[in-house]
Hints:
alpha+beta; single chain; globular
Amino acid sequence: MNIEELRDYCLSVKGATESFPFDETTLVFKIMGKMFAYIGLNPKDGQFKVDMKCDPEKSSELREKYEGIRHGTHTHGLLWNTVCLTSDVPDKLIKELIEHSVEEVIQKLPKKKQEEYKMVMTL
């Protein structure tokens, strides 16, 4: 998956927004005002990597199975994974992980916000 495909897929999530809240080179994707993914646009090693929220148990399994999935770079390593876009991680799995990340974010929102999101999803 290339960076443009990643961006398009993240923005295809109902209600998703993109911004640069930290600096001009870190693109952040949010749902209901909360981050579900971010990517550095100027990687030092030339390899684009996306960080996404993930269930800790699932994270461990994924890290054991794929070389291209590691603990989150600048985040709590149990809750975030870093996925190298040009690695052994299939595009289909990257898309599933984006969806999983969104679900992880929504689950942690207050019930009222979860209901708001459900309304967005039905539009």
